[in-house]
Amino acid sequence: MPLVETPALILHVFPYGDTSRILRLLTPGFGFRSVIAKGAQRPRSRFGGILEPFTEGSALFNLREGRDLFSLSSFTLLKPRQGIGRDLGAFAGASLLAELGLRAGTEEPNPQLYAVMTRTLDTLADPDNSPVFVALAAVWHVVSILGFQPEVETCVRCGRPFDSTEPSRFDVEAGGSVCRTCRPAGRLIDPSTRLELLAMASKGEPCGPAVNRALHGALLHTFLSTHLASDRPLRALPLFLEQLR
Ligand SMILES: [Zn+2]
Questions:
Q1: How far is the CA of 9 from the centre of ligand 1 (A)?
Q2: CATH superfamily assigned to domain 3-80
Q3: How do the domains of the chain map onto residue ranges?
Q4: What's the 99 CA to ligand 1 centre distance in angstroms?
Q5: 156 CA to centre of ligand 1 in angstroms
Q6: Distance, CA 190 to ligand 1 centroid (Å)?
């Protein structure tokens, strides 16, 4: 049975019994995995107090085929990222990213997702940055990497590319922007908001604070609720949307 050592990002931690903890991890080479840290709740545990969400480390565990919970042998701390907990916008954004990953992620290798998540959390841990916009861009980018990229360059119904100055509308079920001919009524999306959405979804590029916050909040809410939360709501979404207001 292969013992693997891999960089790992802790996304969620919960107690198991009186003494252990279960961790949901994201790894570059093994996707999302669950491990049990036996004895981690004991005061003098070999894991110390480092098994917290958003912490990155080197995890050693036994990857036995046919299992969905692996026993964690060791976790060597690389980055604690405690700064995330000191800013509500950063915390809400990081929590939403973790929840989206856990909901839509798989066990397939995804080094790009790992790189984007860890880079974003590094930025969110630094209080000099504008965390809500960093997180908003990362959420759209992560959603795209997970296979839910919104279409914003062409109309989702007729396929016509948008003019750079043309307002459009949104068809959330169809997954993106729709032209005003195909959808004559509904909320208008100005061209700059559409371009901001494109930059966020395709490159994770944050927009500035002068954007239409209400519109961005509404688009994110409707998109995530339709595509990633149809059966149960995302717990971190309301807090994040509050920070975006
Ligand atoms: Zn159209």
A1: 41
A2: Nucleic acid-binding proteins (2.40.50.140)
A3: 3-80, 83-244
A4: 33
A5: 7
A6: 16
CA of 148 to the centre of ligand 1 (A): 20
Tell me the backbone φ, ψ of residue 61, rounded to 5 degrees. -150, 165
If you measure from the C-alpha of residue 154 to the centroid of ligand 1, how many angstroms do you get, rounded to a whole number? 8
Interhelix angle 131-143/237-244, nearest 10 degrees:
130
pLDDT in tens, 16-44: 999 999 999 999 999 999 999 999 988 88
CA 182–ligand 1 middle distance (angstroms): 4
Task: Show the tokens assigned to 75.
Answer: 């976790």
CA of 155 to the centre of ligand 1 (A): 5
Burial group, residue 88, by CB count within 10 angstroms (0-12, 13-18, 19+): middle
pLDDT tens sequence across 212-241: 999 999 999 999 999 999 889 999 999 999
The residues, any chain, with a CB within 8 Å of residue 187's CB and separated by 6 or more, are: 169, 170, 215, 218
Looking at the domain 83-244, which fold is it?
de novo design (two linked rop proteins) (1.20.1440)
Q: What is the pTM of this model?
A: 0.94
Q: Alpha-carbon distance 159 to 180, whole Å?
A: 13
**pLDDT tens sequence across 108-161:** 999 999 999 999 999 999 867 689 999 999 999 999 999 999 999 999 999 999
How many whole angstroms separate alpha carbon 239 and alpha carbon 93?
Answer: 9
